[in-house]
Amino acid sequence: MLVENAEKRKKIQKKIKAEFTKEGYLKGYFEFVVRKKKGISFIDYNRILFEILKSTKVGLGNTETRYIKGVGASPGNVIGKAKIVQNPHLAKLLKKEILVCKTLTIEFIPLIKKALAVISEQGGLLSHATIICRELRKPYIINAIGITKKLKNGDKIEIDATEGVIKKINA
User: Does residue 128 carry a catalytic annotation?
Assistant: First the structure.
């Protein structure tokens, strides 16, 4: 975003600790939220992602079905039943179900809202679906390689989305 007025740049720098290029462009990857009474809020994910994910340990996964490693994209710990979803338009979730899918897209938003947590085989830390999970405070693990084949519907699992670990409780 270009901010040509030097005074406005100074105010923005002071208020959100922002940086500008010498041409006057605001540095960073910003998302914004519009709230009725609070106005517009800006979030620079380049700065806050480090804080959110600094304790995340990246793993390549595990071939055993009792312990599966992914990458924590939205922190939290929960225990629930796995619900593997291929088509978000046909699926329904019950209470205490953890949404498990290959790739989380915006079509899954109604299911994300109902889910106790989310696990996907693919994903990115800055994808829209990941940001939605963080905004809704839903624990989310991405890059859990082969999770849709390693789990069955109804498997009781424990997830630690801060560390990116999925454990099967019932063997």
Answer: yes
